[in-house]
Amino acid sequence: MRPADLLDFAWQVLRGSPARTLLILLAMGIGVAAVVLVTALGEGARLYVANQFGSLGSNLIIVLPGRSETAGAMPGVLIGKTPRDLTIEDALALKRSHAIRRFAPLIIGAGNVRAGALSRDTPVLGSTAELMDIRNMQMAQGRFLPEGDPRHSQPVCVIGAKVASELFGSRAVLGEWVRVGDRRFRVIGLLAKQGESLGFNTDEIVIVPLAAAQALFNTEALFRILVEAKSREQIAHAKADVEEIIRLRHEGERDVTVITQDAVLATFDRILNALTLTVASIAAISLAVAGILIMNVMLIAVTQRRREIGLLKALGATGQQIRLAFFTEAMLLASGGAAAGLAAGELGRSIIAQVYPAIPFQAPWWALVAAPATAVITAVLFTLAPARRAARLDPVQALSRR
Amino acid sequence: MRYADFVSFTYISLRAQRLRSVLTALGIAVGIAAVILLTSIGEGLHRFVIAEFTQFGTNIISVSPGRVQTHGASLGAVNTVRPLSIDDALALRRAPYVQLSDPVVQGNAEVVHGGKSRRVTLYGVGPDFARALQMRVASGEFLPPDDPRSARAFVVLGAKVARELFGGDNPLGSRIRAGGERYRVVGVMQAKGQVLGFDLDDTVYIPVGRALEMFNRESLQEIHVVYEPTAPLAEVEAGIKRILIARHGAEDFTVTPQQKMLDVFGTVLDAITFAVAAIGGISLVVGGVGILTILTIAVAERTSEIGLLRAVGATRQGILLLFLGEAALLAVLGGTAGLLLGWGAALALHIVLPALPVHTPWSYAVLAELVALAVGLAAGVLPARRAAHLDPLEALRSE
C-alpha cells in the first residue's frame, strides 16, 4: 500500500465511527492541554521570579554581616547581629576595588511615620543616593536623596506612593514634614509605583539618609551593602575584592557573607524548573491513561473488523502492511488530539494571562514539543499489541467465521 | 428485574469482555493511584512540618518589636525605633496565664577554644529558654537563674559546637571566647538536629544582657511567652498586649501565637496538596472518557441484545440502570485497584526513601473512591440513555 492509501484507509476508518474518534481525541486533548497549561504556570512563575531579580538591579552583589559554617543556617545570617558590625567605613573602603561601579550601604528597620494626626507603621530604609541607580528605582515627583558624604545627613526623606496617599491623601507631599520615630524629615521625593518586589513593597517604604537612620535606630551596624559590579564579567572579581577588603579591615577575620545575584537566581531557577518538570510529569500521567484507552479501542476494532482484515490479507496485504495501517490510525488520532490539546492549552493560558497580567505565563518550548511527542509515542506504544493481533489473523479463519 | 439478576447480568457482561473491562478499569486505576500517591506525599510533608514545629511546644507566643511584617517575620527584629527591652520580658510574667517569658536576641559570632575557632549562631537568652522550647541539656545545666540584666559570663554549647571545639573532651568548666569575650562553659545541649534547614546544634547560648552588649543593640529580637496549655489563647494575647501597651504607650509590637503560625502553614500545605492532587485527577477525567468510549461502543454492539431484553419486558429504566451499573462497577473496581496501587507505591517509596515522609489519609482514600464512582456514573449516563431509548423493534431488526 502506498502512504497515501494508508492515510486514506485510516481516515475512512476514523470517519466511520465519529463518536469514538471524537472521544479519543478528547482524552488525548485533555492530557496535552493539561501538560501545556501546567508548564505554562510553572514557567510563568520562573520568569516572574527572574524579572523580580532583574528589577533589583543588574550585576548586583550583596554583602551581609555574619558567616555560618553549616550550609543550612541561613536564617541566623539573614537577620542576626554580629559582634563586629559592618560599618560605613567598611562600605567606603570598597571604593578601592576597580571592579565595583557603585555601592549603597543599607540600614533597615521598623519605624512609625507620622504627619499631622495620622500615623503609620512602615519599613524605614537608610541609604545613600546610589541606591536609586542600583535598585532601578523611578521617581514620580521630586528627587531622590542628595549626594554627599554618607556620614552626614540632611533631614530629608523620600516616601512610597502608598505611604503618601495614606498620610496626605491627595494633597501635595513635596516639602511637607513627616516625623519618623523622634526625628523630623522634609519630603523631597515621591517614589513611582513599582509594587511588590520579592516580598518588599516599595510603595510602602520611607527612605532616609544613612546617617539619619543610624541615629534613628541607634546603631552603627549596616544591614546590607549593595554593590554593583562594573560588568557581568567583573562580578567574580568584585566579589573577591569585597571579601579581601573587608577581611583586611576586620583584622584578618572572615566574618561577612557575600552573595551574588546570579547565584541566588540560579538556585531559584533550578528549584522552579524542577518543580515545573515534576508537575508536568504528573499531568502527563493522563497521557498514559489516554494511551490505555487507544489500546482498548484498537483491540475492539480488531475484533469488529476481523472480516475486513481477512479480506485485505486475502487480497495480498502482508502482516507488515496491516500493522502499518493500525499505526497510521493511532498516529492520526494522537496528533489530532495533540493539536486540539495544544489549542485548548493555549486558550486556557491566554485566559489565565488575562486574569493575572502581572505574571508572564508562557509554556516553555520543551513542553510544546514534549507534550505532543509523548502523546504520539504513547499512542504508538499502546497500539503495538492490537496491531500485532491484527497482523497475526489467519485470513481463512477470519473470513470464514461470522 | 430482581436485584440479584441485575447484579449477575452486569457481572456477566463485564466478564464476557474481560480484556476490555480490565483495560477500562486500568484507566481509572492509574488516575486514582496518582491521586492517592500524591496526597500521601503531601499529607506526609504536612505532618512532618507540624511535628518539626510542635517539638518546641504549642503553647508559645512570640512577641517581636515593630508592627510591620515582611516575609512573615517582623522587620522590628532587625532594627526598630521602639525597642523591646529585657524589662518588657520580665513584665510579661505578670500577664494572666503566663508561665514563662524569655527574652531572645540572636546573632552570628566566632567562638574560640584552644586554637580552634568556629563561626556559629549565638543566642542571647534568659535562664528559662530551654524550658520554654522544651530543649534538654545533655550534660551540666542550662544558664543559672541570674538577673538577666547582669548575668554571669556562662555559656551553654550546642552539641555540634561542643564536638567541634572539644572533640571527645569534657567541655564543662572550660573557658571559651565568644565574640571576643570570655565565658565559662556550664552545659552542653542534647543534639536536636536540623529543623527546617536550620541547624540547632551549631549554636551557643549566653545570657541575653551580655549578648545585647556584644551586639551593641538595645532591642530584643523577640520574647517567647509560654502560657498554661489550657488557657484561652485570646485572653493570653489580650493580657500581653495590655501590659506592653501600658509600658510603651502604643501598640508598637507584634504578637504571634505559635498556633496561628501552624494554622498558616497547614493552610498553605493543604492548598499545595489539593492542587497537586487535582493535577493528578486530570488522569481520572481521562479515565472517565475511557469508560464513556467503551460503553458507547458496547451499546452499539449489543443493540440486538437490548432489543430482546425490551421485547421480553424490561423497562427503559431497567436498561438505563443496567448500563449505569456497569459503568459504576468498572469505575469502582478500577478505583479499588488504584487505591491499592497508590497505597503500595507510597509504602514502597517510604521504604526506599525513609527521609521522605509519607502518610495516606483515609479520608482522601474514601474521597478518591467516591470520585471514581461519580466519574463512572457521569460517564455512563450518555451511553445508558442511548441504550434505554432504543426502539425495541428497530433494535431487534438490527440483528
Description:
The complex is a heterodimer of chains A (402) and B (399). With 402 residues, chain A is of the alpha+beta class. In chain A, 55% of the residues lie in helices and 18% in strands. Chain A contains 13 helices and 12 strands. Chain A has helices at residues 3-16, 18-55, 74-79, 88-93, 131-134, 161-168, 210-217, 235-249, 261-304, 306-314, 319-355, 365-391, 395-400; strands at 60-65, 100-115, 118-127, 139-142, 156-159, 177-180, 183-191, 196-197, 200-201, 206-209, 224-229, 256-260. In chain A, helix 2 (18-55) packs antiparallel against helix 9, helix 2 (18-55) runs antiparallel to helix 12 and helix 9 runs parallel beside helix 12. The model of chain A is unreliable at 71-77 (pLDDT under 50). In chain B, helix 1 packs across helix 10 (316-352). In chain B, strand 2 (69-70) and strand 3 form a beta hairpin. Chain B has 2 domains: 3-52 and 264-397, no CATH class; 83-251, no CATH class. In chain B, the strands form 3 sheets. A 6-stranded mixed barrel of chain B has the order 4-5-12-7-9-8. Chain B has helices at residues 3-16, 18-54, 86-92, 129-132, 159-166, 208-215, 233-248, 258-301, 303-311, 316-352, 362-388, 392-397; strands spanning 60-65, 69-70, 73-74, 98-113, 116-125, 137-140, 154-157, 175-178, 181-189, 194-195, 198-199, 203-207, 222-227, 253-257. Chains A and B meet through helix 2, helix 3, strand 2, strand 3 and helix 7 of A and helix 2, strand 3, strand 4, strand 5 and strand 11 of B.
